[in-house]
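# nightly structure sweep
# worker-07 picked up a monomer target from the shared queue
# config: single-sequence mode, recycle default, output format = structure tokens
# input follows
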Amino acid sequence: MTVEITTGSRNGSGPGTLLEVTDLAVSYQGGVEALRGVSFTLAGGESLAIVGESGAGKTTLAHCLAGLVQPPQARGSVRIHGQELLAAPAEQLRALRWDTVALAVQGTPFNPVVAVGEQVAEPLRTHRGMGRRAARRRAAELAGEVALDPALLDRFPHQLSGGQRRLALLAMALTLDPDLLVLDEPTAALDPARRQELIDRIGALAVQRGFGLIVITHDLADASRLAETTLVLYAGVVMEAGRTADIVEDAAHPYSAALVSAYPVMTTTKDLRPIRGTPPDPREIPSGCAYHPRCTQAEAVCQQQRPLLEPSRGRLVACHFGGLKTLLAATGIHKTFGRGRRAVPALRGVSLTVREGESLGIVGPSGSGKTTLAWVIAGHIAADAGEVVLEDTALTASWHRDARMLRRRIQLVLQDPADGLSPRMSVAEIVREALDLAGDEEPAAPEAAVAEALNSVGLPSSGGFLAALAHELSGGQQQRVSLARALLARPKLLVADEPTSMLDASEQARLLVVLRERQVELGIGLVLVSHDIALVRKVTDRILVVDGGRAVEEGPSHLVSLSPQSLTARRMVAAAPAFATRTPAEPGTPIIEERNCR
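# output follows
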């Protein structure tokens, strides 16, 4: 399916189609499949980012757009202004390059023994027939346009910094005023200040000259600032295509969401979350959806059939399920304890959702209904009204085997681990209990499974520790034993109720790191319940604020924690732990330390 870029041109002139890529596939010697059926169109003056991990096929695609990869390696069609580049005569390609399409490749491919200015001016002499002096004057003008000191053009490439060489390369690409500019990793290895300067310059030039812009990058921040539309590429296939803002703020495909979670930016507060597994070898790409070995929601169909790129959620998504599934949905949950005059409403119409692999924080003051909500969505107590649905099946309080097996897909880690650990059982027996309750799902080697579970949470898996009783363990060890037992049940969703409230800072950090790592490795959803918003924002993607049994605010963790809208959230942020800071002072004056006396 062709991805049409229809965001509207920068200059508002609405020019026609500039670039058409249809079913583009590239295979190299040795069975390397770099691209596998990529299609999209780009209008004149439009901007497009192509993002993905290393090895996704981004650079190969950039080379194809300049006609540098030809049959038999390349198949399909690449047309610029209707002219086919694949299998085109060499003379036609030479006429198109620099003039119609210019490519600034990754790295700085300058001749080390020729002055930079001579190389920037070379397209002018070759394609425009300019004399040496006229071409050099124009090269100096172009250097000024890209904020490069024209005096640097007399230097050799090794005498320029990496950022200066990038600017010189951009000047060279613009020498013939191309209709399409393709930039391959334009800011790689640059310091933040130089990166910002280069991005600003590219954006300004695109507006001034009105050329089409394609940015090939693994840097999502660059993509969000330079391109109106983004293609997410994985194993040579487009996984998602749509407006850049939509993909960055609310990715639909599991791979796109994982890319966003792994990227460090100032607009997020949670810790980085790597994508589990590794990208496939282009020589041995998995069948079906290439992402399925790393995907948290993969099913049998994902291994058997390659999904089509189809409309979903306002963009195009290559997923059999239209993108990320809703793992758990709780709708209109009401719960009251007691009767008559003694009735105490704990929850009043609370609703929430958790998507596949997502982490949701539930925060609120003591008595707000957090723990009751956690117990309801974990299936430990029944709601008076409302519904909890896990993977399209409603949870019930029935003790029928199917209902019990469904509830086992959600594991609850209690606030006080002593409440869930038998004082009469050893560590080995406590953890193995998760397997004993599974019945016919018990693995062939339960002792090895117990040892692996303990190792995964940083606990000893042999010796006297296995025989220890719960009261012989520290609080941190008790919580990790509870976590090991919960994870051994192979849940799809883990609900952790104040799991660090009884731990010191070091044990708290250790437990949260383990929890986050296991969530990524196992591909499970996480609901973290806490009154500490400073802690929750480091672990979760979204935060739900509850007070008085009602949901009073919900949003991305960074927005709720940095710009809270509800009074409850503002109070929680104001009361969150913070170190005393030093007041800025004039040089030579004493520095007075401010202390929080509340």
